[in-house]
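Moderator note: this is an archived Q&A kept for reference. The question asked for a predicted structure of one protein chain; the sequence and the answer are reproduced below.
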Amino acid sequence: MSLLTALLEPLRRPPLKYIAIDADLPVPAQERSSRVRYCLATEHARLCLLPWSPVLAKRTHWQQFALSRFAQLHGLSVDDWVVRVVDESPPRQRLAVAVRASLLAGLGADVGRKRASASEVRIELLERLAALLARRPDFDGTVLEIGQRSAALVGLRGGALVRLRQRSIEPPDLPVADRATRIARVLVPTIIAEQASGDLQKQPLLIAAPKLELQSLVAQALRAAGVAAEGWPC
């Protein structure tokens, strides 16, 4: 690829269409171009880490492992959810992602029993992590992403995912200060436990939220509870 092509290529790609709530979904017969790109709020997905196993020699083996793990954790039906497993070099854990088949179909994806093909469907948390690791590939620490109704907590060591939790949180119908306080109160035990499990107590906790005010207030509340937290440029 020439330098000129490399510079122009991003301009040819349409921007990501952010899907935060169901109201953001395109109406039927709209936006069915193969060039449509979507970014789903993380709460639309279920995430889990799969421990490395030399027995799982093929991608299909990891796929079956992920399906059984999601069924165990969330009671997900194979018919209702589309599952993907991110390739990793051994002995790193592998990230598994599940999204409702009906949601993908609403985005114009061609969803089969076990496959989904669309132009692009991305997950907000994974976009954030990719941006972070592009700048700091050996990052040690914890990332907390706050959504509308759930939060995701990810621990990384040497740039590899070592811990992952999703938790329900207060919905956005409270004053922002009250919501931030309640979110921090709910998450502190989880944060402390996950940092201890990943030996990340002395590493930074980066917070991302839909609005900078909420991000700042949650960081303040967590620091008041003894968690070293800082806002993450969103």
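Archived answer notes: Residues 1-12, 113-118 have pLDDT under 50 and may be disordered.
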